[in-house]
């Protein structure tokens, strides 16, 4: 591993911090978290008026480490380093950026791997089920901690975009802009089906032990690896995979009569992705996050009318989608835009040509960067 | 289960038959099957000139039972009853139809669950790996048995279409028509990825025992169920699933604060499909069939030039695809058509509007039936 020279457009070395909240957090399931920790990172400086704050909401397998590096030799920077930094769309010369690990997560905030104060054991499967709005409530506590009265923008991709939209409905005065990338107002039956298969893979792993694998000093690695492999394929596009792997072989030979192991590149790539994920992610968190995704239905409590739902919002919206994203297809984004227009809201929309599938929102595609950058300039003008 | 009244357009009650082949069958892997059985069904009558024979090639999880019922109370007719019968596209008043279970299968033909004569135990994972051309060779033995010199047509969907195309290249004089439905000249990286995940699910089931589960008196049910669930989702379209399930709930309530189990219809449907399949299909067959799919590459031995490959064919071609099929997308069929046109072959092509995904080829969609019917009338004219 070589030392990474510090890039001019990088936020550089960052250090995660943790806040402890003593007061119980009421959850939508009716239970409450007696106390909880939030691990977070910040980039840029909060201005005197506290008007330049941006909240980053992470997706299914995301966390607080969105930009920069924890130490100079860290192999990869934070997951959204393409978009956060000096001169990047979320410009840390202009904005104060807060990125947190959501409760229920497994990267430092209170979640299923944390100790249940009532039992002294890991929460595991007893951790309360969460809905997207619970994350909004927890993020509000962070907002109060920093003394922020209104976010300049709340920004998220995928499940992160769902949180940003939920904020816009629940706390219309708390934000000026909502940036929703590669997201949807609710999952399709196909989305739910893939999540259910992933959950089945985890729960049928003999090391799952009804979610009490930590007490059994083991991990449901194979189930979690399978879940990740399924997820991974659905986040890529057919064309993108063709470009990346084609039908190239890892080893062996497809010729007639050839013997021995034959393996396509894509097979070993997927297995590698799966097993790496299985070592670094918590299975109960994966179950909890996919259920929150499945249950999310923006307009449910507005008689299934997204126009009625969005009529509560007061902020401006930017919606972006990617042509080859079939997990959160452009049609889903257009539904958001149509509802916002019908509700008389200000909305910009860009459908970006990209063959990277759902993962495109993480990639610095030139037109994506240009459009994102232009919109964020507008956000900056309002500071 | 109620008695099914015999339909006028049904082939009625059919009885599978079995043929035993004593001579070794040389396989493309270099090994040979010392002896083998083929289970098959026939519908319609072979004419005196033996010129009206049609070979049906089955797909991944298919078998010989393509039409009619084995007994009056059978819940469902054969898998392609929509297309085979009196007055149907493959008209049994006109044609003699042969439908076999391929070697390597698990419905009566010699496969991994059969006894290996050398050990007296089930073949299991020691069954030779198969390529599509091995099925062609085995089907040729059936052709000889019936004294058929030329098939009126060879017809198949998906992996069945791949066999039909392989026939056209290997034995150009053995067929007058080739009908290729929802198929491709080779799998994409995405296709291979889904197959690999399915294989991983099977092999990581603790009851798999390196494929020797029968010797351990068990079955890798959970792995096979997961494999089927993955396959099933990829055979349906997003729109089709939306129409069939939407976000309907099986039980429970998504309202805020509600407790108890909440389940979407699509989840219980998938689990049911998975566990039913796990009881009726052999895991080693699933591994073998998906590997044959992955390895298939029509033009590999023609310097990757499909035009050069198809220049060997002498028959006429009919190619059909379905708009919402994303596993074997219309683009894949258009590649076949383009290559055939460039090779100067006679080819008809129809892209059928359908929201049933890959499974559309099994469904009596009116335009599909009309086009298929019209083409088969042409086949009948040549008898």
Topology:
The structure is a homodimer of 383-residue chains.
Chain A: E1 17-21, E2 25-26, E3 32-33, E4 36-43, E5 53-57, E6 84-85, E7 90-91, E8 96-100, H1 132-145, E9 153-157, H2 159-170, E10 177-181, H3 189-203, H4 221-235, H5 238-244, E11 249-251, E12 263-264, H6 265-280, H7 283-295, H8 306-310, E13 316-322, H9 330-342, E14 347-352, H10 366-381
Parallel strand pairs in A: 5-8, 5-9, 6-7, 9-10, 10-13, 13-14
Antiparallel strand pairs in A: 1-4, 2-3, 4-8, 11-12
Short description:
With 383 residues, chain A is α/β, with parallel strands linked by helices.
Distance between the termini of chain A: 41 Å
Order of helices and strands of chain A: EEEEEEEEHEHEHHHEEHHHEHEH
Considering DSSP H and I runs of 4 or more, what fraction of the residues of chain A is helical? Answer: 25-40%
Secondary structure tally, helices of chain A: 10
Strand order of the largest sheet of chain A: 1-4-8-5-9-10-13-14
Q: Could you tell me which chain pair has the largest interface and how many residues each side has?
A: A-B, 52 and 52 residues
Instruction: Note the main sheet of chain A.
Output: 8 strands, mixed
Which keywords apply here?
14 strands, homodimer, globular
Describe the structure.
- The structure is a homodimer of 383-residue chains.
- With 383 residues, chain A is α/β, with parallel strands linked by helices.
- Helices cover 33% and strands 15% of the residues of chain A.
- Chain A is built from 10 helices and 14 strands.
- Chain A has helices at 132-145, 159-170, 189-203, 221-235, 238-244, 265-280, 283-295, 306-310, 330-342, 366-381, and strands at residues 17-21, 25-26, 32-33, 36-43, 53-57, 84-85, 90-91, 96-100, 153-157, 177-181, 249-251, 263-264, 316-322, 347-352.
- An 8-stranded mixed β-sheet of chain A has the order 1-4-8-5-9-10-13-14, with helices on both faces. In chain A, strands 2-3 form a two-stranded antiparallel sheet. In chain A, strands 6-7 form a two-stranded parallel sheet.
- In chain A, a hairpin with a 5-residue loop joins strand 2 (25-26) and strand 3 (32-33).
- In chain A, helix 1 (132-145) packs across helix 2 (159-170), helix 3 (189-203) packs antiparallel against helix 4 and helix 4 (221-235) packs across helix 6.
- The longest helix of chain A is centred in the last third of the chain and has 16 residues, at 265-280.
- The mean pLDDT of chain A is 94.
- At the A-B interface, helix 3, helix 4, helix 5 and helix 6 of A face helix 3, helix 4, helix 5 and helix 6 of B.
